[in-house]
Structures are given as structure tokens and as C-alpha cells.
């Protein structure tokens, strides 16, 4: 036991892979921001700001994004079915539309009590509804048997990586910068993260040469590279992949026998161009070249946490498997069975997301108004924040294309870098900490996502309402740059 602890568990004897894992979006800066929030709640007037803005994490409803009325009304009836005994009150006094009541009755008939476990891979009726959504989205059939419900996309990633990674030599190609779920999960599994750098000067496009070089180097070091992760639209970059990029990754996966994990949770958050799903691209390639791509293994993920839904706390998501060996798929089913099932109310919310009110239905007008209002608000704030970065000395930022984030480059003086070193911090972390202390705005240093050597970035969401906090960043940045000239 450690000489500094009398506990059975201490920092020296717990699982070393847990200690090795890092998850920057809820790291030191986030903890510090919550301390400030608590002080403000106690009317502490010594801080130089009046509120904390949590721009560090894609948590829309924490930042005042309103829930979609149709979704929450249906959920309220699923949680308390006794309300259905008073349909006249619901409609005439509480503003519930008839299609809300009908959808709730459908769920109760198909799913049953939301307080009971569902099938381990999710309610068959909900998975069938998702399959129909995928067919509408992609133009190709989907099978409900290949769809697995999960507690958000993160749970799906955890399932897939547990099955893919067989030991310390197993490797997974991960885009850099990346959402730290992937590197943290690989650390926990004692598997190898094989980084491949995205091209910042090309709006964070996928660099096939860099991909091949990373793959070659890893294999030369006896890493058994089994999988490639693609986040589209990107987190933290906000990039939206072109159809050519998607097809190039599929071709690489075919040549090199790599499983594709397509993290597509931001598929509705696209401001420039359009979203290209990996499933639709793969099916088109299979049509054009019969037999050539039949063995490509694709797992694509979606979630209720992002987009215009933003229901992070309800923990709902799914992944679809394409081209997997049936025996492997049985093991994936066994793995999700160990966790019993995804939250059933979250499963229901996934069904509402993929099958929202249609034109002509009573709830459609309000749904469309709320959905478009959220989308337009996100785009307007993205453009405003991007414009602010354009005005800031030493800051460069790609045009916002999608997701909920911007990932600007910052160029800091040698004096600022030296000041950071004195505190034992990376320069981008030092900058973000000073921003938090001066403005109450919490962002995440680029080092938490990975970045090319000798570059500095930070990631910010554009979820927070209003523009006052953007002005405070501009003011802070000018004062910081002046101080460290």
C-alpha cells in the first residue's frame, strides 16, 4: 500500500489505465468553472464576471436551448400514462395535440412500461422505425436486426471498441484533433490510438496521404490496426466531409481491411453543403462495383444529444452495423446484454427524433417553427463568433461548416509561452485558464483534442445565447495580447 494512504485503494494501486485516460472537456477548467458558478450562486461579487458560460461541452439545454414541445409532451404521457384518461383536458386545457396522444399510445402499445427493461438491443418497434428513417435518409434498405440502441453514442462507441480491441497491440486510427472519448476509451482498453492529422488549411479535410503514412508507421511498429474512426461533421473542428472524402475513406478501409466507425451524431448540424452518410456512400459504391465492397464493415452512430434535439440527459442513441460477420454480431449482442439495455425513455426519444411530426399533422407547425428556430440560432451564433475571431490578433478560424463548435488557431508570444511554462502548463491551457478567470467563459484547450506540433488552438461551442460573452472574449484577448507582448 502507499505510504501516504491507509485506504485499501490508493492512487498507486488502482487500474493504471484509468489514470492514463484523459477527458479534457470535463477537465480542470470545467471543474474551476463550476467552482466559480457556485461562488456566484452565493452572491460572491469579487469575480470580474456575473455568469459562467460553459462553452466547453456540447450540452445544448444547459445553455438555454429549449426542448422540442412534441417530444416532451409525448414523453410526459409515457412517464405518466394515467394522463391519457383525461384526453379532453390534455387537448382543451394543456395544449396537447391529437397526434401527441396517438404517438404516446403507439409507444405504450409497442414498448410497454418505460420503467421496465426492453430487449437488450432495444425495442424491436423502435429499431424498425429507425430502419425506416435510414431508408428515407439514404435511399437504401436497412434492417432493424442490425440496429442496436445505446445510452447515447458514447455507449455505442464503448461497445464497438470493446469488441474490436483484442489486446495491447490492437490499434485504431483516430482523427486529430478528435473528441477525447476515443483516446480515453482506448487508454482504458490498453489499446493503441493511431493518430492521423486532418488538414486545417483545407477546412479540416481528411488527408489520405497522412492516413496511409500513419497506418504504415503503426504496422511497422507491430500495431495491429483494425479500425478507422471518422467524425462527420467533425468534433472539435466543425468540418463536414465531402462525398469524395467519404468515398476515399471507404476505399482505404477496403484496401487495408479496416472496420469503419462513422460518428455521425452531428448529421443535422450542417451549415455549408450537405451531410453525406457513410452508409449511402458505401451502398452507391457497391452498386457501381458489384462484389468489390461487400466485405467493408461499417458501424455508424447517431444520438439524441446533438442536432436540434439536444436531449443529452436522456441518453439515447443507436448504431447500425453493415457488413459484419454474423458471429461477431452475436458477440456484440452479448456485450450489450451485459449492460441489460439502453434507457427505455431515451429509446422512445430516438424514435421521436427519427420520426417527427409530418406536414399536415397537428403538431407539425410548432415542431417546424421550434426546429428551424434552433437551427437558425446556432448558425447565426456560429457566424457571429467566427466574425469575432477574424477580428482578433493572431487568431485564425475555418468557416463554420457544421456541428456545434469552432476550433480556432491562436498564435501567442514567446512571453506568453514562457509564462505558461512557469506554471507548468501548455500555452493553450494557460490562455484558456486566463480567459476563464477574466470572463467566466469556459473553453477547452486544443491540447485536449490533439493538434499538430507547434500549433495552439481552443475549442468553443456556439450554443450559449446572446453575444455579450463573445464581446468579453474579444476584450480579454486584446488585454492578454497586450500584456504578453
TrEMBL record:
Its cofactor is pyridoxal 5'-phosphate. Its EC number is 2.6.1.2. It holds the Pfam family Aminotran_1_2. It is an enzyme of class 2 (transferase). GO terms for molecular function: L-alanine:2-oxoglutarate aminotransferase activity. The lineage of its organism: Eukaryota, Fungi, Dikarya, Ascomycota, Pezizomycotina. Belongs to the class-I pyridoxal-phosphate-dependent aminotransferase family. Alanine aminotransferase subfamily. The gene is ALT1. Signal peptide: none annotated. It comes from Sporothrix bragantina. InterPro entries: ALAT1/2-like (IPR045088), Aminotransferase_I/II_large (IPR004839), PyrdxlP-dep_Trfase (IPR015424), PyrdxlP-dep_Trfase_major (IPR015421), PyrdxlP-dep_Trfase_small (IPR015422). This is Alanine transaminase. Homodimer. Residues 98-467 form the Aminotransferase class I/classII large domain. Keywords: Aminotransferase, Pyridoxal phosphate, Transferase. CDD domains: AAT_like.
Amino acid at each position: 500500500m502507499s505510504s501516504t494512504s491507509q485506504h485499501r485503494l490508493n492512487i498507486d494501486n488502482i487500474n493504471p489505465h484509468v489514470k492514463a485516460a484523459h477527458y479534457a472537456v470535463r477537465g480542470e477548467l470545467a471543474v474551476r468553472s463550476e467552482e466559480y458558478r457556485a461562488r456566484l450562486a452565493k452572491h460572491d461579487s469579487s469575480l470580474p464576471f456575473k455568469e459562467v458560460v460553459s462553452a466547453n461541452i456540447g450540452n445544448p439545454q444547459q445553455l438555454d436551448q429549449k426542448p422540442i414541445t412534441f417530444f416532451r409532451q409525448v414523453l410526459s404521457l409515457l412517464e405518466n400514462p394515467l394522463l391519457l384518461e383525461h384526453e379532453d383536458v390534455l387537448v382543451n386545457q394543456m395544449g396537447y395535440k391529437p397526434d401527441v396522444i396517438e404517438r404516446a399510445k403507439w409507444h405504450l402499445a409497442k414498448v410497454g412500461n418505460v420503467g421496465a427493461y426492453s430487449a437488450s438491443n432495444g425495442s424491436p418497434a423502435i429499431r424498425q422505425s429507425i430502419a425506416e428513417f435510414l431508408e428515407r435518409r439514404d435511399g437504401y434498405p436497412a434492417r432493424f436486426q442490425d440496429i442496436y440502441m445505446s445510452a447515447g453514442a458514447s455507449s455505442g462507441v464503448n461497445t464497438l471498441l470493446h469488441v474490436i480491441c483484442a489486446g495491447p497491440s490492437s490499434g485504431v486510427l483516430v482523427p486529430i484533433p478528435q473528441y477525447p472519448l476515443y483516446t480515453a476509451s482506448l487508454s482504458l482498453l490498453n489499446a493503441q490510438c493511431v493518430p492521423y492529422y486532418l488538414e486545417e488549411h483545407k477546412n479540416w479535410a481528411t488527408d489520405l496521404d497522412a492516413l496511409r503514412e500513419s497506418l504504415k508507421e503503426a504496422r511497422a511498429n507491430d500495431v495491429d490496426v483494425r479500425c478507422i474512426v471518422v467524425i462527420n461533421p467533425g468534433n472539435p473542428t466543425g468540418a463536414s466531409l465531402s462525398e469524395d472524402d467519404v468515398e476515399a475513406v471507404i476505399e482505404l478501409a477496403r484496401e487495408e481491411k479496416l472496420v469503419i466507425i462513422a460518428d455521425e451524431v452531428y448529421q443535422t448540424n450542417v451549415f455549408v453543403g450537405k451531410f453525406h452518410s457513410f452508409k449511402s456512400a458505401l451502398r452507391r459504391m457497391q452498386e457501381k462495383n458489384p462484389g468489390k465492397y461487400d466485405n467493408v464493415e461499417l458501424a455508424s452512430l447517431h444520438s439524441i444529444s446533438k442536432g436540434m434535439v439536444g436531449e443529452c440527459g436522456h441518453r439515447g442513441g443507436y448504431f447500425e452495423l453493415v457488413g459484419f460477420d454474423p458471429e461477431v454480431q452475436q458477440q456484440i449482442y452479448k456485450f450489450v446484454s451485459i449492460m441489460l439495455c439502453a434507457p427505455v425513455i431515451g429509446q422512445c426519444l430516438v424514435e421521436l427524433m427519427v420520426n417527427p411530426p409530418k406536414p399536415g399533422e397537428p403538431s407539425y407547425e410548432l415542431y417546424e417553427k421550434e426546429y428551424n428556430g434552433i437551427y437558425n440560432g446556432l448558425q447565426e451564433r456560429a457566424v457571429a463568433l467566427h466574425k469575432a475571431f477574424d477580428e482578433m490578433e493572431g487568431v485564425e478560424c475555418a468557416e463554420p461548416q457544421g456541428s456545434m463548435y469552432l476550433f480556432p488557431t491562436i498564435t501567442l508570444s514567446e512571453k506568453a509561452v514562457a509564462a505558461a511554462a512557469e506554471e507548468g502548463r501548455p500555452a493553450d491551457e494557460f490562455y484558456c485558464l486566463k480567459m476563464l478567470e477574466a470572463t467566466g467563459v469556459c473553453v477547452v484547450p486544443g491540447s485536449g483534442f490533439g493538434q499538430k506540433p507547434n500549433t495552439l488552438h481552443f475549442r468553443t461551442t456556439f450554443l450559449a445565447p446572446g453575444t455579450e460573452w463573445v464581446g468579453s472574449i474579444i476584450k480579454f484577448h486584446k488585454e492578454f495580447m497586450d500584456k504578453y507582448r
